[in-house]
């Protein structure tokens, strides 16, 4: 079946602009995660959605970052007033009952 | 604070040998630990999960051990092949949370 998809695959934006990143999880997966991965670094947890529970936003680095999820489907990560330090690959993953996570290919964000 | 450490230096081994990667953690009581493989430009791929009450898990040429006294997991690839070259990430999940905390990963290079 289809895996996790993310769009766009690449995004170049000017400093100060807002960007919206999209994640389509595997159908039926209850949990959805967003991570940030800077060049040569590990995965940095951003936010986690599980069913209809309140999301765990403890990893969001600032109030410029927000995310939404519609039910158990699509999620969007929004970064407002982008800064150069926001440049990274943003990875989305979904899972069933919080076991192994299935990752999308990521969105490479470059802020100029 | 919680910390997960993986050797940041690349591990270079000859084809056919056993590769052993280490994951150490502090200030954490994990319910389980997972290992993922990440190839350049791609999202991580789940390999194995081992629970805190399990000592060892095997899957084909892969073996994971988990020592909660030493706070350490070892990941072994036997009869390594050049196709095993990738970055390997460990990740821990604690009790009462669905959040996975990832290590920074160790890059493995298998030479023919």
Question: What does the model show?
Answer:
The complex is a heterodimer of chains A (112) and B (112). Chain A is an all-beta fold and 112 residues long. Chain A has one domain: Immunoglobulin-like (Sandwich). Chain A has no helices and ten strands. Chain A has strands at 5-7, 10-13, 19-24, 31-37, 44-50, 65-69, 75-79, 88-95, 102-103, 107-111. Chain B is 0% helix and 59% strand. With 112 residues, chain B is mostly beta strands. Chain B is built from no helices and eleven strands. Chain B is globular and about 45 Å long. Classes of the chains: A mainly beta (112), B mainly beta (112). At the A-B interface, strand 4, strand 5 and strand 9 of A face strand 5, strand 9 and strand 10 of B.
Overall geometry of chain B comes to globular
Radius of gyration of chain B, in Å, reads 14 Å
Largest chain-chain contact? A-B, 24 and 20 residues
Task: Give the name of the CATH superfamily of chain B.
Answer: Immunoglobulins
H/E series of chain B, N to C? EEEEEEEEEEE
Order of helices and strands of chain A: EEEEEEEEEE
Query: What percent of residues of chain A are in strands?
Result: over 45%
């Amino acid at each position: 079946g289809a895996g996790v998809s993310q769009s766009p695959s690449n995004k170049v934006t000017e400093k100060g602009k807002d960007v919206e990143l999209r994640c389509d999880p595997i159908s039926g997966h209850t949990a959805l995660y967003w991570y940030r991965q800077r060049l040569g670094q590990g995965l940095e947890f951003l936010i986690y959605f599980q069913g209809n529970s309140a999301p765990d936003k403890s990893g969001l680095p600032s109030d410029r970052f927000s995310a939404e999820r519609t039910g158990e489907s699509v999620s969007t990560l929004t970064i407002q007033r982008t800064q150069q330090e926001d440049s990274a690959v943003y990875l989305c993953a979904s899972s069933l009952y919080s076991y192994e996570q299935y990752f999308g290919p990521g969105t490479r964000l470059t802020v100029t | 604070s919680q910390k997960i450490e993986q050797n940041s230096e690349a591990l270079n081994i000859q084809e056919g040998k056993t590769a052993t990667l280490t994951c150490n953690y502090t200030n954490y009581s994990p319910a389980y630990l997972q290992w993922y493989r990440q190839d350049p430009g791609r999202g991580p791929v789940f390999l194995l999960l081992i629970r805190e009450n399990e000592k060892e898990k095997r899957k084909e040429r892969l073996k994971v051990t988990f020592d909660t006294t030493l706070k350490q997991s070892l990941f072994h690839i036997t009869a390594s092949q050049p196709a095993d070259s990738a970055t390997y990430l460990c990740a821990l999940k604690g009790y009462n949370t669905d959040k996975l905390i990832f290590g920074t990963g160790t890059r493995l290079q298998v030479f023919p």
